[in-house]
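$ ./design --mode recover --in tokens.txt
reading tokens...
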């Protein structure tokens, strides 16, 4: 949604495409701008959580590579954007979620509260025969950790589009398609752990971030599904 490219000169909107997810990296913030992936039940299997947090070797060599210990003692969790639990088909798939380009400093009460609740909800939708397009990221600046290297976001946001399993996805999206998001404050107090307390329209996340999500969907359909308040 940000017109990211793989040109190293584009250092604050640098596209990184992996088999498991794609992201736009922000060198100045040392976090992703957004991370995007598709979730369906084929991605969920028996691979155990790898916990192999490590610098991402795919970053340009001259750039600072965030390491696991950059978050140590910061008071913030290593907040997965693409969650470990969404990539358990194989050990390499799960391990890819522990590359430090997939993390932002996340308040524990956010990460372990509504954020986790919504990750679980999305996996439930997948287990019920849906495929879900997910885009998520940080927004804002509440200061830094790691000696000024990593920016702590003000909020974390997510948008999802849900369709039943099938092929030719774009052609199956219509004005009835379910699309919505969440915005969660990354500072206390957190208003309970239920993700529905944080539910917003896709339009609200577009307004927050300046991105145009789901922009391959014809404009008239996109406008309808992005402004509709989810009630499920
Ligand atoms: Mn998490
Ligand atoms: Mn849009």
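writing sequence...
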């Amino acid at each position: 949604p940000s017109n990211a490219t793989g040109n190293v000169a584009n250092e604050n909107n640098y596209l990184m495409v992996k088999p498991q997810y794609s992201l736009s990296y922000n060198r100045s913030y040392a976090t992703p701008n957004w991370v995007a992936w598709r979730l369906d039940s084929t991605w969920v299997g028996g691979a155990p959580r790898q916990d192999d947090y490590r610098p991402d070797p795919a970053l340009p060599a001259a750039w600072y590579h965030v390491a696991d210990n950059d978050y140590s003692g910061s008071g913030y969790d290593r907040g997965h954007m693409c969650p470990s639990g969404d990539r358990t088909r194989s050990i390499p798939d799960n391990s890819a979620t522990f590359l430090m380009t997939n993390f932002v400093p996340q308040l524990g009460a956010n990460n372990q509260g509504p954020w986790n609740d919504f990750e679980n909800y999305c996996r439930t939708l997948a287990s019920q025969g849906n495929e879900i397009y997910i885009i998520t990221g940080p927004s804002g600046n509440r200061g830094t950790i790691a000696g000024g290297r990593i920016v702590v976001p003000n909020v974390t946001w997510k948008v999802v589009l849900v369709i039943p399993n099938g092929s030719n996805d774009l052609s199956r999206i219509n004005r009835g398609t379910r699309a919505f998001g969440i915005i969660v404050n990354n500072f206390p107090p957190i208003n309970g752990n239920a993700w529905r307390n944080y539910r917003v329209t896709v339009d609200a996340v577009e307004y927050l971030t300046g991105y145009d999500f789901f922009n391959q969907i014809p404009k008239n359909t996109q406008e309808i599904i992005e402004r509709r308040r989810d009630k499920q």
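exit 0
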